[in-house]
Amino acid sequence: MARRRLEARARLVRAARDLMARKGVGATSIQEITEAADVGFGSFYNHFDSKETIAEAVMAEAIESFGTAADRLAEVLEDPAEILAASVRHAVARAAADEAWGWFLVRTALTRMGGLRGGLGARLARDIRIGLERGRFEANDPLAVMLTAGGAILAIIAARLQGDIGEDAPERAATVVLSLAGLRAKEAAKIARRPLPAISAPQDAGTGENDPAGGRRRVRSAP
Amino acid sequence: MARRRLEARARLVRAARDLMARKGVGATSIQEITEAADVGFGSFYNHFDSKETIAEAVMAEAIESFGTAADRLAEVLEDPAEILAASVRHAVARAAADEAWGWFLVRTALTRMGGLRGGLGARLARDIRIGLERGRFEANDPLAVMLTAGGAILAIIAARLQGDIGEDAPERAATVVLSLAGLRAKEAAKIARRPLPAISAPQDAGTGENDPAGGRRRVRSAP
Q: What is this model's ipTM?
């Protein structure tokens, strides 16, 4: 029973994701979503309050999927500083390429998704912790550094989305985060500009830059 | 005509501020606001869409009023590092004392209020710029440092409101911001713990910690 419920919810999110990626949130109706998901129209409301709620679930999945893909950086990179820099660069670049994703991250990362406890925040904290444990990073106040790194990424993403910082935002964000983690300015800047390994997202939630319908998603969903 | 309109709007915001501080947003009705403001009920909608919209205007004024009060720190302090530290500490402490204010800041500072262009973000950028111009601060990438400082303050406020960082959050936030501005760790920590000059807010928007009805405002308005 609980499993069936979860399956129906997953089908709804998948259908919403495909429709919203193709047509945009505004042009997608709840009826289209339930039809594509093969779920009764009324059952939609057992899972979601509104189209906005399911759009948020789609976004949350897109962010989680990005995080899972970014996790694989640890397999191709060894240096904790390179791993951290690559994660930061990928997150800022993705946000710039997909405004809806970026604004959703900015709006939710400090509140609903629980700061360093959930989602990308927890991953960031982990990447910093690993570097500290291995003696690669240094911080008098690790918690403050983790929070600052998270806040920095969000503020730089918001500035990028508003056109206040240029295309090199990913590298500048990585430089400042590595400096926070105790690297000297010169080394931080160097590592932040190394060739960036790709991250693969086989189960990408369809709102990413690899999505052929990408252009449609460039809808400013905030402020 | 335009002036009258502004006056009516100001009366509405003032009445909403007083009522909401005393009774909370939920228990305040639009009718009470218009009666207290001596404005016709229907005219309310010439100025605001809903109770939520006027509550946001109240919060925006409270933040602006805080910023104006914090501006006076430059009159009692000389060192740009002390001015920056005191501003950061006051903002974090105020957010912890007034959750609605804190969450409003977290939710809006990166989006609606325009990052470093408006409100407290613009003040933070100015305080950092002054320190850079006087040679007290040092930064390879001033814009990234300003954004990071802003993001750090918001992330630490959110963590404080969620109980993830302790009562020394204001001093830890100030330490990390001063380090970002190029101060050595030891000096940053020392300045961040100096006795803090009070800031006075004669026209405080009534949701601050000086408000006798303070307890009522401790309503979590986000996430």
A: 0.82
